[in-house]
Amino acid sequence: MRKLKICYIGWAYSIHLQRFAGWFAKRGHEITLITDRYSPIDGVKQYEVDSHKFRNKRIEYVYNYFYYNFKLFRRLSNLAKIRTIIKKENPDIIHLHTLYFPAQLGVFTRRRPLIVMPWNGDIIWKKNRSIFRPILVRYALWKADVISAQTEYLREQCIVKYGARPDKINIIQFGVELDKFKKDIKEDKLRNDLQLNDNSIAISTRNISYNVLNIVRAIPYVIKQIPNARFIFIWPPNDPLETELKDLVDRLKISKCVRLIGSVDREKIPSYLSIADVFVSISLIETFPQSVLEAMAMGVIPVMGDIPPIKVYLEDNFNGFLVEPENISEIAAGIVKAIEMDEATKQVFIERNLNIVKEKADFTKEMEKMERLYYRLVPGKVFA
Questions:
Q1: Mean pLDDT over all residues of the chain?
Q2: Nearest residue to 108 via CA among 68, 80, 148, 73
Q3: Helices in 5-70 by DSSP H: which ranges?
Q4: Half-sphere exposure of 166 (CA within 13 A, CB side)
Q5: Considering the chain, what percentage of its residues have pLDDT values greater than 70?
Q6: Which of 92, 225, 287, 378 has its CA 20 to 30 A from that of 340?
Q7: In the chain, where do the E strands start and end?
Q8: 273 C-beta neighbours (distance < 10 Å), count
Q9: How many Å apart are CA 57 and CA 23, to the nearest integer?
Q10: What is the Cα–Cα distance from 23 to 372, expressed in whole angstroms?
Q11: pLDDT for 109-131, tens place per residue?
């Protein structure tokens, strides 16, 4: 099997891109990543755009004036850098992760084959978009040789909203590392450390902006029915709503029922999921979250917002519970139902969810699927 030279353009600090690029690097492929902010990934050569240095301070002053005051100049400057990097590295494939900066500039590099992987923010979100954003997305999907979508819902939206050709679109998940997220992990020490030995536990590991505050608002209603219920909240570093979350917990006087963990290393997430009974994710708009698939793989029952993308993998009262994301009492009722499930029904739900993850979102299988796609796009490279 001849190795490929793959150039990714995207956010090096994104766990999705880190796992993606890292897997192909370990596979022996030559990986280059063009990013706006460096973050180490083993085996991946990185170039950081959106930064520059000059020996001549006058030239640097003039350049910075235009760079930081004129957005078009900034974009053209970074596009020139990206083109120079691509010419130097001469990759077999250009693969864009998202259509936000800097990946969006990869659309204008004139190199093929080009794979575009839109994320839910590219296709579904509308808040604070410029009038040119839909034009860029439509152009990118038109220009792409292949479009990689994580779910059927995202595929459908690419076609309906942006006119993407159905034959271009492949469904490839970010996937769950089943060797790390498995339901037989036992973490009695963590339970002891958090003083949660005899409690029913609900957990959220989402960005606070994903409607997590409504989960907090539902806690008093849950506690009235299940006094020993406890809630664990984990969120990414520097979440802008962290203070608001903590203030809300204080105002509702539920601090004894809540463990505000904050940011933790990804390697520790399976430990926290292993002590949870219920995973709560009630975002108002998104595709099916990676974090929920990881929870499902570990036997944690999902309670999720009743929005169309979620129904790709979750059916109410079949393998989880769907609730209205803005209805606090309904959120609480869904959590209570999940906690109070009888053991036989719970095991049925767990088995169904594990089968879904194994069939639809096994990380290794999804990466192998992408690797086969790469080889189909590159003449003269043979996949063994």
A1: 90
A2: 80
A3: 15-26, 57-69
A4: 4
A5: 91
A6: 287
A7: 5-9, 30-35, 44-48, 93-97, 114-117, 146-149, 169-171, 200-204, 229-234, 258-262, 278-281, 301-305, 321-323
A8: 26
A9: 42
A10: 14
A11: 888 899 999 987 778 766 556 77
State the chain's maximal CA–CA distance in angstroms. Answer: 73
State CA 174 to chain mean position distance. Answer: 8
Cβ atoms of 334 and 324 within 8 Å: the answer is: no
Per residue in 221-275, pLDDT tens? 999 999 999 999 999 988 999 999 999 999 999 999 999 999 999 999 999 999 9
Nearest alpha-carbon partner for 369 in 139, 117, 190: 117
Instruction: Using pLDDT thresholds of 50, 70 and 90, give the confidence band for residue 285.
Output: confident
Measure the CA–CA gap between 91 and 32, rounded to whole angstroms: 8
Which domains are present in the chain? 5-175+362-377 (3.40.50.2000), 188-360 (3.40.50.2000)
Say whether pLDDT at 63 is over 70: no
Q: Which residue has the higher pLDDT, 134 or 335?
A: 335
Contacts of 279 (CB under 8 A, 6+ apart): 202, 203, 204, 205, 273, 291, 292, 295, 296, 300, 301, 302, 303
Residue for token pair 């984990």: 234
Output the six-digit token pair for 238.
């520097």
List C-alpha distances in Å: 330 to 219, 221, 282, 291, 369. 12, 10, 11, 22, 39
**Residue 232 DSSP SS3:** strand
